[in-house]
Amino acid sequence: MFKKWKNRVIELKKIAILRRLSRLSFKQVTCQLLQARSRVAHLKNITIVRLELLACYIGARLADTVKKDLKLEDVDVFYWSDSMDALHCIKKEGPWKTFV
After folding, report:
1. Which one of 12, 41, 53, 77 has the fewest beta carbons within 10 angstroms of its own beta carbon?
2. Which residues of 56-85 are buried (b: 16+ CB within 10 A; e: fewer)?
């Protein structure tokens, strides 16, 4: 079963997702990138909320890296997530627990 899966993973290289780049007005441009990433969850029990929060963290790191690499430090970035639990954790005030 693993060999079958491994052979099919190679086909993922053929997938192309177009990026959207459009001009809003003079000297204004918007660029939308779609990012997907998968990780294998640990065998120990990790909650869905924690995995969703990890996805938000990975997305923020990716956006930061893209901004630095493209030298776009002054560009506004908007993050979207459909996980209300992760958004609640991010917006929470007060002392945060260490996230590892």
Report:
1. 12
2. beeeeeebeeeeeeeeeeeeeeeeeeebee
| More confident of the two residues 39 and 12 | 12
DSSP 1-56: -HHHHHHHHGGGGG-----EEEEEETTEEEEE-------PPPSS---HHHHHHHHH
In single-letter form, the type of residue at position 59 comes to G
Q: What is the pLDDT of residues 3-15, one digit of tens each?
A: 887 777 777 777 7
